[in-house]
Amino acid sequence: LKTLELLQNYADLMDELWKRHIVRTMNNPVAGFAEYLTCKALSLTPANNSEKGFDATGPDGAKYEIKSRRIAKGNSRAGFSAIRDIEGHHFDFLIAIIFESDFKIKSAWQIPYQLVKDNSRLQTHTNGWILHYRESSWVDSTVIDLTLVFIDALAKEIT
């Protein structure tokens, strides 16, 4: 396919994901899919797109920030996207999901706010806090490994 045809296919793909309510914006579909899958897997309610500092709410009122990474060829970046105003304590838990390049689940965790704050570093040029992907950081009694929960949710989603 020519470059324009590939881009048109991408536009069609994004339109279809939008129609299916899998993504809520036309930005990177990895983040949108992570939010969608998290809400399905954990029975969360998505927050309005305009909410500051969290992406979903649990039945108990807990607030969740959702961050994801897709391990892609040629992309060695180890951090999740920036967390804005971490000092504002807008979320109770961060759900961190690592997708393989084909969108299969590599790992997923529920990390409490304080541990996220303690393990994030301010990146001044983005004016946000970056949590780097290091599985060794999640060896903590307050972190919940959700990998199997997400693998199961993904299996239900694709059948």
Question: What can you tell me about this protein's structure?
Answer:
- With 159 residues, the chain is of the alpha+beta class.
- The chain is 31% helix and 23% strand.
- The chain contains four helices and eight strands.
- A six-stranded mixed β-sheet has the order 1-2-3-4-5-8.
- Strand 4 and strand 5 form a beta hairpin.
- Helix 2 (29-42) crosses helix 4 (147-158).
- It starts with a helix and ends with a helix.
- The model has no long low-confidence stretch (mean pLDDT 90).
Structure class: alpha+beta
Annotation field: number of helices:
4
Bulk shape: globular
Number of strand elements: 8
Brief summary of the model shown:
The chain has 159 residues and is α+β, with helices and mostly antiparallel strands. It is built from four helices and eight strands.
Summary keywords:
159 residues; alpha+beta; 6-stranded mixed β-sheet; two-stranded antiparallel ribbon; 31% helix; globular
Write the layout of secondary structure elements.
Blueprint (H helix, E strand, L loop, with lengths): L2 H17 L9 H14 L2 E2 L9 E2 L5 E8 L22 E7 L5 E8 H7 E4 L4 E4 L12 E2 L1 H12 L1
Parallel strand pairs: 3-4
Antiparallel strand pairs: 1-2, 2-3, 4-5, 5-8, 6-7
Helix pairs in contact: 2-4
